[in-house]
Amino acid sequence: MKIDKYSAILGNTVGFHNMSTLTDHRPVASLPFGGKYRLIDFPLSSLANAGVRSVFGIFQQDNISSVFDHIRSGREWGLSTLLSHYYLGIYNTRVESSTVGKEYYQQLLTYLKRSGSNQTVALNCDVLINIDLNQVFHLHSTTKEPITVVYKKLAKKDISEVNAILDVDETDHVLSHKLFDSKSTAETFNMSTDIFVVDTPWLIEHLEEEAKKEHPEKLRYVLRDLAVKEGAFAYEYTGYLANIHSVKSYYQA
Question: Where exactly are the transmembrane stretches of this chain (predicted)?
Fold first, then answer.
């Protein structure tokens, strides 16, 4: 039985940032923004505006209490009704590690299988973006690929070494990806926002395979590689975006 058409997986960051002066006692997701807001409010608002009512947040166990304290019941994002769901999954791998323990995918797969959704969107809290996810959902539904990725053209100064740069062909499909190289002489780059829309049954199948590995990788690395393998449709976003990758970029956002 289909319960929700869309489900969401919300992570903390797209990579490990050297922001210890700000994140010693709380994750990036709960950093203040604009006085009364937190960075996690941006993706949660995008999900709420798109009508997504089933969200699974996956966070490293250190200092997770600030996320619980801020979200509480999830009422502000429509996640506290009878037919809405918000879950927090916790894993104990070091935040800078690219691999995870078995509990990571056990939690994710349980959530996805119970969601009954057609499509799943994966996104993070350190890329502040005012995106209409309904547009991405619609475009994904019109393509034959099981995965769609959102990217934005950015200047070198706005990107860090944890961000993935996409090679996109003339038909808007992903050919390859690599981590940003600050030594590159290019003026602009196709930076992945690490927002992915995927077919849920297809995602479950591939995450089950990843979970069988001795050292499974975090979701973002799996999705980046699958985007290349499947020739994902690449959606170019042209609106506001702030890439929070350093103390300086945080205060400039």
Answer: none
